[in-house]
Amino acid sequence: TRHADVILPGESTLTRGHYDLAFTALSCRNVANYSPPALEAEPGSMHEWEVLLRLTGIVTGQGPDADVRAIDGFVARQLLERGLHNPLSPANGTDADEAWSAVNGTFEGPERLLDIMLRTGPYGDGFGRDPGGLSLQALIESPHGIDLGPLQPRIPEVLRTPSGRIELAPPDVVDDVERLRGALRRPRNGDLVLIGRRQLRSNNSWMHNLRALSGGSNTCRLQIHPDDAARFGVEDGKPARVTSAAGSVDVEVEVTDALRPGVVSLPHGWGDGNGDVRMRVASTQPAVNSNVLSPPEVDPPSGNAILNGVAVTVAAV
What we know:
The protein is of the alpha+beta class and 317 residues long. It has helices spanning 48-59, 68-84, 96-103, 109-120, 136-140, 171-174, 177-185, 226-232; strands at residues 18-19, 31-32, 34-35, 146-147, 192-195, 221-224, 239-243, 248-255, 263-265, 310-316. It has a 6-stranded mixed β-barrel with strand order 5-9-6-8-7-10. A two-stranded antiparallel sheet has the order 1-3.
């Protein structure tokens, strides 16, 4: 935030309701579950959706005093009418004004959008057509969620590939196989390959300034197999220099047989890179930025940065 010109007022996650859209794709049962806010928002604060709609008012020329509730209602009405025109929806053909009266005034913001999507979705109540169907109110009254039964197969009807089949060998990938074979034949720099690592206490986040999460196994160490440690003369708990074609870092070694020989591992999400961390706990933890070792090239088929399988050498410091 020290680089920011404007800092938008944020809200605690605990003041927002939650309906999971991502991890339900990994569920072993078909379920619907809503978690209401655990805390009331502080007086005078703004929800994130209110901030976003105020910005919408500004960029659309309505100014900072735009009617946020009117914009919210406009978005909700558009979503509702799309749902009512969906031939697969249980609410298809329902009078728009009648349906709007059922969702207008009870909820607002994301909750109203969720209510519309639930009621027009495949398990929805269809605004009265199926009294046992889903709505946001039904989920609120079922705090442990509603079990909709086992997962249903949806292939091939949901596929949108040109062939209508799961394309396991698309041309872009097949055409790249020769380059891949050449890369596999290339001698590796020092016979070591660097891979990344997640850590439970800071998974996908940066929690190194929380003292309660800073101990135990949540440390930045280079994991290496005992055979490789002996081969390169590095010792457990001692520093080593890891070098790639892009750069080098000095990091403490952790000798472990959890890795196969020829592979070393550094966790991601560590190292500020400029020595300017202004956090009391995090600044005391020795750590390095694994991105320093990533090559400037990208993976040709995907365009992604190359963060794994990086050729490196390791030497004692």
